[in-house]
Design goal:
The protein is of the alpha+beta class. It has 12 helices and 15 strands. Helix 1 runs parallel beside helix 2.
Length: 366
């Protein structure tokens, strides 16, 4: 933008109805808003007429800021479309009426993500990715305290969320012929593959049933379908476990509510909630476990049930946290789940244990 076309960040803020809180201040970033609505990560410098969000790296001048906040345009999109630049410039040159701030509004963004890649490609990419990152001592000790052995931790593939290498790792994966398109957690930024930055935590692979792909039964580990993250710290209104997902990112991919399976299919298996809980229950019981993300997350369960029936599974023991006894909403979801299991022909049993232990994994550990 030429010097004569400078508008100034203050006038831009006034046009958008955003309160001016000083020469430099922060507001919620519209790109990160859906994930962390309370975090004011987007920094505005009115003297330099620039802005930047360190989390998603959105940045630019006042005209890029205006395009982002009002229409959801990225800086790259504005640069590539001269007519859009001219339109924004004309709007910004209009006279501002007052300095009174109004409520912050999130712009509407176009959907940019893609459907999931094949399970083989996702599994190949995730396995290669996990080999490039490490498990911190803190997270290792956390898993040990939950009752997992060192061999379990190594075989299951847990790893800490990376703090660097967000462009380097995807580049190395592509050199190894890994297809990143349609793999949750990866997306494109400025036409370059990168991976989603997250707060500190560790990855928990969610795998499919290995016999579905490997009839030899030489390996109980199925393909990794997606990965959950257990965060170290969370806000009061947030959740501890989330899928590593790049929904609505350029060439990104949403992570679906995939079930997780551990062990070899037998006549009787256990059904619980959460991949990590499933791994722990398997470690102590040596009984095959299927773990769904939540008692109400059953949309992707039918294909698993069909396959389990074909493989000879006939009895499913449910093992959900004891707090569902006092939660009517969870009870309703549990009933729907049981009815689904019965429709597929399974005998459904409910495991019971001392209520002072919330989860079956806690009970087995103690």
């Amino acid at each position: 933008m030429a010097q004569s076309e400078k508008i100034g960040m203050i006038k831009t803020l006034v046009n958008l109805g955003i309160n001016i809180e000083g020469a430099a201040f922060n507001i919620p970033c519209p790109v990160c808003l859906s994930e962390r609505p309370k975090n004011k990560t987007l920094h505005i410098d009115t003297e330099q007429s620039v802005f930047r969000c360190p989390r998603c790296e959105s940045s630019g001048s006042e005209i890029h800021f205006y395009g982002l906040m009002k229409y959801g345009y990225t800086k790259e999109y504005i640069k590539e479309n001269k007519d859009v630049f001219v339109k924004l410039l004309k709007e910004l040159k209009g006279k501002a009426t007052d300095l009174k701030g109004t409520e912050f509004k999130q712009p509407v963004f176009e959907k940019k993500d893609v459907p999931p890649n094949s399970i083989e490609e996702r599994g190949k990419t995730y396995e290669a990715f996990l080999k490039k990152i490490q498990l911190s001592d803190t997270h290792y000790n956390n898993l040990i305290d939950r009752g997992l052995r060192e061999s379990d931790i190594f075989e299951n593939g847990y790893a800490s969320t990376p703090k660097m290498g967000f462009a380097k790792i995807p580049s190395e994966l592509r050199k190894e012929a890994c297809d990143l398109l349609g793999v949750p957690g990866f997306y494109k930024k400025n036409e370059t593959w990168t991976l989603l930055r997250t707060n500190s935590g560790f990855f928990i692979p969610a795998r499919d049933i290995s016999i579905n792909r490997d009839s030899s039964l030489q390996n109980r580990f199925g393909y990794i379908q997606a990965m959950q993250i257990r965060y170290d710290t969370i806000d009061d209104d947030d959740v501890r476990y989330k899928w590593w997902s790049t929904k609505d990112f350029e060439s990104g991919c949403a992570a679906l509510t995939y079930p997780h399976f551990v062990g070899y299919p037998e006549k009787e298996i256990i059904l619980t909630e959460g991949p990590l809980k499933g791994d722990i229950i398997y470690r102590f019981s040596n009984t095959p476990v299927i773990a769904i993300p939540g008692v109400g997350s059953i949309s992707n369960l039918p294909p698993f049930l069909e396959l389990l029936w074909k493989l000879g599974v006939r009895v499913i023991d449910t093992a959900f946290d004891m707090d569902y006894v006092d939660n009517i909403n969870v009870q309703d979801s549990y009933i729907k789940l049981v009815l689904m299991l019965m429709e597929y022909g399974f005998i459904v049993k409910r495991l019971l244990w001392d209520k002072k232990y919330k989860g079956y994994d806690d009970f087995l550990l103690k």
